[in-house]
Structure formats: structure tokens, C-alpha cells
Amino acid sequence: MPELKHVLVTHSEQVRERALQIVDAHSEWLFEEEGGREAARQFIAEAAMLHDIGIFYCDAPRIFCTGEHKYIEHGYLGAELLRREGLPKHALVAERHTGSGIALEQVLREELPIPERDYCPISLPEKIICYADKFYSKSHIDEEVSLSKVRENIWRYGHDAILRWEELFRLMEEKV
Predict the structure, then answer these.
(1) CA separation for the pair 153, 122 (Å, rounded)
(2) Which residues have C-beta within 8 Å of that of residue 84, sequence separation ≥ 6?
(3) Assigned CATH for 2-172
(4) Model pTM?
(5) What contacts 107, CB < 8 A, 6 or more positions away?
(6) Would you list the DSSP string of the chain?
(7) Backbone torsions φ then ψ of 94, nearest 5 degrees
(8) Other C-beta atoms lying within 10 Å of the C-beta of residue 41
(9) How far apart are the C-alpha atoms of 157 and 154, rounded to whole Å?
(10) I want to staple 63 with a disulfide (CB 3.0 to 4.6 A). Which of 3, 88, 138, 165 is the partner?
(11) CA–CA gap between residue 86 and residue 118 (Å, rounded)
């Protein structure tokens, strides 16, 4: 279990730092729904650290996960845990961060083993964390994923996924 904790904490810290750099680079974002910039920064920092908590439930030996569920389930499983802990907004981040989001149509078409609903990021914090997450792999913890590799990874999930990714990319306009 110490290996899994190391992977989870290191990955989450990487995502948190990139997400906060993105927030800091966009002074035009007001985060009115989140209660302002400082409240949003705090929420994003927390949610980034918790977004992958569901991996504990999954079977993914490459990253030391020995649970019973398929890896695709880690988002909604983590969200269920966070809801039970009284963190409903954090739960939405966990639920909606996989890939560039997973549309209900994809869940149905591919008969994915997750509850039938839409898993695409909606709020700005959800989008920021979803985006930042793509640059850090849990199986190659010491390497940042290049933008071209991120796009290649997203393409595997189809045209709609890459369109959602390109929308996230344009929104972030990374200045870091």
C-alpha cells in the first residue's frame, strides 16, 4: 500500500500545482460561483488532491491498485466516497475528470461499467482539474506527458472526446 499512496499523492500534487498555475495565469477568471478567487484556489487545491481517490477500489497492478473494480470506475467510485464524506462539489470533480469527460452517449454505446449518466466537466474548477490531470500519468510518475501525447491519448476515445479536449485546451490558454 505505501507504493499506491506514493503514486496517488505524487500524481495529485502534480495535478494540483498545474491547476493552480493555470488559475494564477488567468486573472480574468472571477470564480463568482465559487465565492471568489481565493475560495476557488482553495477548492481547486483540495479537489485536485482528491480527484483520483477512487483508484483504491480498482484493479490496476501497474500503479499498485489491488481492488476489484475496473479502472474506468474510479471516478464515480471516488465520487461516491466523497459524497459520503460530505464533499459533494469535490465529488463532481472526481466523477467528471476522466479523459476529457465521458458523455452519456459513450457510456451507452460502449456499455461502460459505470452508472448511466454524463461525466463531462461542467464548472470551471472541474474543467481545470480535468485538463491538468492529462499531463501526469500515474504509471510514469516522474514524467510530464507532452501535449502531443495527451492529444494522442484522447484521440483513442473518439472524435467527441478530442473536441471536448480542444475546448478545454482553448479555455486554458496556458500561460505558464
Answers:
(1) 21
(2) none
(3) 1.10.3210
(4) 0.95
(5) 114, 116, 117, 118, 119
(6) -HHHHHHHHHHHHHHHHHHHHHHHH-TT---GGGTSHHHHHHHHHHHHHHTTGGGGGBEEGGGTEE-SB-GGGHHHHHHHHHHHTT-HHHHHHHHH-SBTBB-HHHHHHTT-SS-SS-B---SHHHHHHHHHHTTB-SSSTT-BPPHHHHHHHHHTT-HHHHHHHHHHHHHH----
(7) -60, -40
(8) 17
(9) 6
(10) 138
(11) 22
How far apart, in whole angstroms, are the C-alpha atoms of residue 116 and residue 151?
A: 26
Task: Choose among 68, 53, 22, 47: nearest CA to 174.
Answer: 22
Strand-pairing partners, residue 102, are 119
55-94 pLDDT, tens digit each: 999 999 999 989 999 999 999 999 999 999 999 999 999 9
Cα Rg of the chain (Å, integer): 15
User: Is residue 139 exposed (0-12), middle (13-18) or buried (19+ Cβ within 10 Å)?
Assistant: exposed
| Calpha distance 70→39 (Å, rounded) | 34
